[in-house]
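Q: Protein A?
A:
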Amino acid sequence: ADGVYLDGRRPESVTFCDARGDAMRRDFTINAMFYDPMEDRVVDLVGGGRDIEAGLIRTVGDPRERFGEDHLRMLRAARLAAALNFSIDRETEDAIRDLAPNIRSVSGERVRDELIRIMDSPNRAEGIRYLDRLNLLGEILPEVAALKGEKQSPTLHPEGDVYEHTLLAMEQLGETDFRTAMSVFLHDIGKPAARLERNAFHGHETCGAEAARDVCRRLKMSSSEMDCICWAITKHLTFKDARRMKESTLRRLLGHECFQVLLELHRADSIASTGDLSNYEFVQAKLEKYADEPILPPPLVRGDDLLALGAEQGPLVGEILKKVTDAQLEGRLA
């Protein structure tokens, strides 16, 4: 049995107890059942089996007490409901709505880990809808909550405001990694800051990358995850220029270590708006073209080579290397 909870996360003490005492310290009824291998039976002291059959997420005992013990359980309720296609018990839901501000006291790492689990689920968009309905989204990700009601051009975005577009884009994702899911989730969070007249958002990809970096830092993501997510957001409008790019520019883009994240972001973004995948298909064809050779082959000339030939160290060396690499990538030099 648990002692008193003073920090909204862990008890001051834990003591041995019987099965009922153990069950009563759990978060939700569906997580509070036991298997008795000696008698080959399920021990259910809190109605977890009944709630599974009913498709219901319900706390063990008083929901306000359970969420007071560990505030993260509120996020877990949203995750479980979305992942299992369950609904949330009314009393449990009301308690979460009232206690939602308490989630701000939970560390960024713990919020991140729960968000990773939401993003890993095929029902990730429904998970975000649950966070919104439970008043949790605005507490942990106010940048995303601010997208609700942010109008867009009905021609380019007949699906609705930026928030609905974001959820629709997330629904286009199949099994994917956390970086890709978060890139799609955050790709338009710069639109409120970049809004101009007539539903135009020039520069929102730059504003969005800056805002996404703040989110990633707050959630204590790794530098590599943060850099990849922010790069994809910065570049997510690049595909509209793909057909006009020099071959060297396009190959540098295709060869970036996070290009597959960007490619999936563009696909989901396109389907969730106009549905036009012509640029996506053009880039896919380019990838197939280079399937049997390195997209970014080893350089023909390096800086040390130029210095050995007597070139002076400085900007000119970089300019020469770029021109040589451009010619190599465009097939003019081999």
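Q: Protein B?
A:
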Amino acid sequence: AKYRINAFHELSERASQTYTTKQMTMEGVGEASRLGSKIINCKDVSYFWEGGCLLKEFSYNFQRFDKVEIVGRNGVGKSTFLDLLTGVLQPSSGVIERGESLVIGYYRQEGMDFTGDDTVLDIVGDTRLLGRFLFPHDMLNTRVSRLSGGEKRRLYLLTILMKNPNLLILDEPTNDLDIVTLNILEEYLKEYGGSLIIVSHDRHFLDRVVDHLLVFCGEGIVKDFIGSFSEYRSYMRDYESAKKKDSIASIKPQSSAKPEKKAEDKPRKLSFNQKRELESIESRLPELEEKKAAIEKDMNSGALPYDKLKEAAELFKQVSNEIDELETRWLELQN
């Protein structure tokens, strides 16, 4: 039996196709430089590191208004892939072509580098953008050395956005940002008129801003899924269920079938303990997501006093971290 759902494709089938969605109506909305028809075209790109393959013959043409999430377990090569797209790294083989009018904004975890004597306004001169991201007028002359870690991370994000990139690449942008800033960033990205590529473990945030996944399966294999991460997770449950049904249906009462054929048709299975772990994760995740949504609703209500809001923010972070860990493990078991 073959297990295939039309939403999930081998990348080779879409390497030269055009990806268009309802977002095509967003042209001219948001802050982004004018972008030509070519964004980034990858053809047969491979990358090897210390004897391992992180990317194998990857071919894909990124399109205007793409809103792409990079999915995969830790260490599978997601950040390396972003470095290849931006030219920080060169591929072992294959070709990466970038459009002439391409302006990349690349938010990296290790990219923040400020001089302590600089003020907020020295670093980001756009007062409108500063105000939108919670830097009011009375903070503009504040020295960077006096900002909190979260405020520095938020200011670093603005140094990327102020360049008006037409391709925005965000590597774990939600780390160290509070819930209010995340809501503002979410609204900004919804209005953003360029192409977007994100790596993040905050699935609640990502479900609202992306509609297309590149799934890193390990050993350099990348697959394409149209939809959100939640839809991908639902798809994988249906996919595994279909495999089980087809496997049961293929078992015949007679022993006339060749043993070699049975072994060939039999899908790879998880161990008993892994199956139990997977079932536990799939049962636990909806509970945590419902709890997270309820906490977020309380935090956004404006009714909580400061001490309760602080407690809620800490609980929100704990629940989010648990969801991240479970979803990362879920990906490992599925892949």
